[in-house]
Please model this.
Amino acid sequence: MTYQQLPPPPPQGTPYPGRPPKRLRPHDPLAVALGNASLLGLGYFLIRRWFFGLLGLAGTAALLVLMYQRKDTAYQFGLLGWGLLQVLHGLFLATRPPERTASIPKRIVAAVVTLAVITSGVVLKRGAAEVADKVTAARRAGDCAKVVQAQDKVWFGDRLVAGQDMDRGDGDVEICGTLDTAKGHLTRAAELGEVASLKDGYAVLGTIASDPRQQATAGAVMDRFVKDLQGMQPCALITMTEWLRTRNLSKNLLDRANAVIPRIEPNALLACANDYASRATWVTARAMYQRLVTTYPKAKQAVRARAGLVKATLAIELDNVRSLVSTGGYCSTPAKYSGAKPYHRGFNPAIFLGDGSQYADQLPAAWSIDDPYRATVVVCTETPGMGAAVQTCPYVPESNPYGGEVSYVTFRKVTVPAKVYELRSGRLVLSTTVQMSGEACPYRLSSSSTEEESVTPSDAQVQAAFRPLVVRP
Model:
């Protein structure tokens, strides 16, 4: 094998023999940096680095997709970092050639595109911020209608640059829908006095009442209900306050209705009780009066309620006594009527009941009355019997007065067991047996007569016998 010595290098300035080295084109670093700042890879395209340009576009697109889907501000900073990386890389590529050149047209194109991208981003960001601010302002004002109106203006660009804010707005709209449902239940409860609707409204509103962000919107619904509550009819209002009193306080805005109860319930109770009293529904009226007196003993309405309570109680007692008298059950279950006069010395008007009350027709009208409202005592009589013998008389058949068999009939006094009850208290004040004399031995007797018959007392004799029952010595 043979070797040949290399020729000496050519003098300085003389081209090297063989293939000449690759010559790098001069670039404008500023144009490249401005172009890549657009996040569109424009700087790469200006220096004909197609791969890096497409890579820049793909990276920007991927980050935008992630921004939209993940709604995380970290991807926004990532996008800025991606743009900064492209600017630095573009400067590196543009400054490699030994020669550089300034290209005004390229700078203008790059500046215009980058400015357009930045302006678009700023406009989108400001638009999204304005929408978010309107939603926030409406929410803080408790105006769900404006919340929905503002959120309706959200579009794709707003969700791209402010996804979290827009999602919060969507959540506010959803909550406003729930609040609208609660409002419907509470409005129905106030209009119709339905406790079921009231419960449903509280159940729906209770899921939102403790949310710090929704205090104004949920509070507006509750304030509206409180206002409607105060405008309800008294008796319907009582059904609402009765349920509200039974619920456990939640220490949030749901308790606002409970806070106004002491202010509005006394008037409602009094008005409702008076309404029932005007219709003679005394049991319900008394319950309302009693509730007012018990719950608000120091309220000014309690004075009138106490008077109404007495009136209702007397009416109930009177109705009960009248019912017992009319059905004949008073003597077995004596009852009081507190409005009656007490059993006192002197004359006491009486109601006569029982089998022996037949003799009441022979008494003066002032002694025997039918209405418990005017009576002082109730006299309960039993079946009349026979007392001491008065006279025995012979009788012959009327068809054969001279030849017929003689029979003897003994006539006895009339006895009537009687109990006197004081109507005011329903207590027994006298238990005695009334005994009456009367006419004996009438000229004729019926064929059904027995060996013993009762005398027939006169009006004067009946009055004399019954007088001790109605006239207290």
